């Protein structure tokens, strides 16, 4: 066995899923002395029938297709393809295809050997494609040079150049960057005016790179013409040259002719095929209007066959996840029909089980809504009369006891008012005494009335003085009102200065959306997660559903009052969080879609007459 041929055969057989086994034979002088030079897999049961087919191809000097009539145990192939390998002549392809015989390439030279493959194809038309791919692969053994299978691959300079081109294509961060380096290097190597590379997309051919052009605008007319040329080549699945060679098979060349007429270049377009599908196209343009013949054109074909898998791999790696998902879905039906591939069936069964579970298995359904804490009882310290704020002894968050002074109002004006009425009272009492001494009844009544008025005003002033000291009505904590920033400010009678709430006595208010209020009833339980304690949840029990809706942030919401369980004594009023109320069991599908279904029902009810 020859290591170079063994590696070549293994790579070719593993590049497609249709190939089951392969063998390469070399002639020692006569067709009957053919000796196996490489086989894959080694020591396989298919080697004897493959050797027979290879000998038949060498004897006949043309491809041979054998349909086995007796199936071997464990064999999965249904056809055997054998192709003779002939010495390469100038202008020839080096393989025993009918096309090579027509061109006269090696027609008078005996075959040097043959390649035989055991394949499994359901479509008989795929046989021609497999023979064509095998013929192109055979030319890679020496890349157009006279065939010498005894020379190891490491000594093949053309193979090194091929690896160099593949390294350029894989070297960039994406397909476009690697393709630019590849096309620029190839244009310099072939002496071409321009080299273009395109990849096949769902919408059609997409230009990836143009030699010596880091950027190009897809809307330009020239770019569109290049794309049409490569699309025309890809649709036919064959190499297209314009002007056509005398030995060329007639092709459709409308787009090629238009580009040639505009640019005046000779064109050679080669499709990139991988796995029986066209994945892109390569276009080479030479100045002068003529297409070079011989090694350059054959080099383009061999290079296209070598880079097609790399273009497909890079294009698949660069696809967004949406395209990869759509491609996987497109391939799923065909993979499900394959008997020897259980993975898609297992995935489909798992997906069906997941859909059934989501649709039919009930889970706990909870109604979530924003919530905040309030004091169970709230007392307000209000301004008893019009005045000015003099002093504040507490701030929000401070704990106070009943009777503690929390604020003071200015009392200078009230003291002056009290002195005024004290003087007026003394004056009127003296008038009462003088009228009584003179026995002046009328004056006595007038003075006594004025004295009573002054006494009442004095009492009112004294009460105001006593009420300038604002005290806490209950034991609790200050939850609202920071008077330290408003000292000296005027206040009016009835203004709320401070708000107090008892310590440890809270009421939870949950703002439930009107779309979910029908699922909430008194007595239901739930959990509360506060913004300050997101990792700790508190138990709650619904006590009351307020029957009046309020507008909160552009939506209608109902206030639901709930009682907290243990652990709420250390909380402070004003804390906010999210409450979830247990509302029975439903399937995940219902939980995810019930709001959409309700909206659709309401919309249809409003739209229909």
UniProtKB/TrEMBL annotation:
The keyword Coiled coil applies. Its main location: other. Transmembrane segments: none annotated. Coiled coil: none annotated. InterPro entries: UPF0194_transport. Keywords: Coiled coil. It is found in: Cell envelope. The keyword Coiled coil applies. It comes from the Bacteria. This is RND efflux pump membrane fusion protein barrel-sandwich domain-containing protein. It comes from Sphaerotilus microaerophilus.
């Amino acid at each position: 066995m020859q290591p170079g041929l063994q590696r070549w055969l293994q790579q070719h057989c593993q590049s497609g899923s249709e190939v089951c086994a392969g063998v390469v034979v070399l002639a020692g002088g006569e067709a009957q002395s053919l000796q196996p030079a490489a086989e894959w897999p080694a020591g396989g049961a298919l080697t004897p029938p493959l050797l027979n087919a290879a000998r038949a191809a060498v004897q006949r000097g043309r491809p041979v297709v054998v349909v086995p009539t007796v199936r071997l145990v464990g064999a999965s192939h249904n056809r055997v393809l054998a192709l003779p390998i002939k010495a390469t002549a100038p202008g020839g392809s080096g393989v025993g295809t009918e096309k090579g015989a027509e061109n006269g390439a090696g027609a008078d030279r005996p075959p040097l050997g043959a390649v035989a493959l055991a394949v499994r194809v359901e479509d008989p038309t795929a046989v021609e494609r497999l023979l064509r791919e095998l013929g192109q692969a055979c030319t890679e053994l020496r890349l157009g040079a006279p065939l010498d299978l005894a020379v190891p691959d490491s000594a093949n300079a053309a193979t090194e150049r091929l690896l160099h081109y593949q390294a350029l294509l894989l070297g960039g961060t994406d397909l476009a960057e690697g393709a630019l380096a590849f096309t620029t290097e190839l244009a310099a190597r072939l002496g071409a005016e321009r080299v273009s590379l395109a990849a096949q997309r769902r919408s059609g051919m997409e230009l990836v790179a143009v030699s010596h052009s880091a950027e190009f605008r897809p809307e330009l007319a020239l770019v569109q013409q290049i794309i049409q040329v490569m699309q025309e080549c890809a649709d036919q699945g064959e190499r297209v040259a314009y002007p056509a060679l005398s030995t060329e098979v007639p092709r459709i060349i409308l787009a090629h002719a238009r580009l040639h007429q505009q640019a005046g270049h000779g064109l050679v377009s080669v499709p990139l095929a991988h796995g029986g599908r066209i994945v892109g196209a390569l276009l080479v343009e030479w100045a002068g209007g003529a297409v070079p013949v011989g090694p350059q054109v054959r080099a383009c074909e061999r290079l296209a066959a070598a880079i097609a898998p790399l273009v497909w791999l890079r294009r698949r790696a660069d696809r967004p996840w949406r395209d990869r998902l759509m491609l996987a879905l497109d391939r799923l039906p065909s993979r499900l029909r394959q008997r020897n591939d259980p993975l898609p069936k297992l995935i489909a069964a798992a997906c069906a089980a997941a859909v059934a579970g989501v649709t039919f298995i009930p889970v706990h359904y909870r109604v979530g809504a924003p919530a905040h804490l309030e004091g169970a009882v709230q007392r307000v310290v209000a301004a008893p009369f019009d005045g000015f704020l003099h002093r504040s002894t507490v701030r929000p968050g401070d704990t106070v006891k009943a009777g503690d002074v929390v604020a003071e109002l200015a009392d200078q004006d009230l003291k002056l008012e009290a002195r005024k009425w004290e003087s007026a009272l003394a004056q009127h009492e003296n008038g009462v005494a003088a009228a009584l001494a003179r026995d002046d009844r009328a004056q006595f009544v007038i003075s006594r009335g004025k004295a009573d008025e002054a006494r009442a005003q004095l009492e009112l002033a004294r009460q105001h003085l006593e009420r300038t000291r604002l005290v806490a009505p209950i034991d609790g904590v200050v939850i609202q009102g920071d008077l330290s920033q408003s000292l000296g400010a005027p206040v009016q009678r009835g203004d709320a200065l401070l708000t107090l709430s008892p310590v440890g006595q809270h009421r939870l208010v949950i703002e439930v959306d009107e779309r979910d209020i029908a699922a909430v009833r008194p007595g239901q339980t739930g959990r509360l997660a506060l913004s300050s304690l997101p990792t700790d949840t508190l138990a709650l029990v619904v006590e009351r559903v307020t029957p009046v809706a309020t507008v909160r942030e552009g939506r209608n919401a109902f206030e639901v009052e709930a009682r907290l369980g243990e652990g709420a004594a250390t909380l402070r009023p004003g804390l906010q969080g999210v409450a979830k109320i247990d509302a029975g069991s439903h399937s995940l599908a219902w939980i995810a879609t019930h709001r959409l279904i309700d909206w659709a029902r309401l919309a249809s009810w409003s739209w229909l007459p």
